[in-house]
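Field reference: sequence -> structure
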Amino acid sequence: MKQIALKGRLVLRRILTGLSLGLVALVFQACYGSPPAYRGTVKNADTGKPISGIKVYADEYDGYYDITDNQGRFLLYGFYDTTLQFRDVDGSKNGEFQDKTITLDLKEKGPLTVVLNNK
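Structure field:
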């Protein structure tokens, strides 16, 4: 009987801990908002077609980046910088493109369309 009561307390403690952590997360998001997410498409300036294999990042050294998929789409979230950088990382596989840096308007929430020129 004593063992059942002990297990019940442990289960209750875990449930309350999980609820507490969830509440802290909700309060944090309510106060500070969720981190911004930027999504968009990278296209070829000459053809207008999407480009795959482009690295999209805010700061090369912070570790947060995305690489465009076959439709040229990217999604980058969890950073508060105001610039995005685009770099061709697969070389001549899809053509070679010039690097580009853009300044973001943090109020704009729509998808971005970025156009890269050939080298």
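Note: The mean pLDDT is 79.
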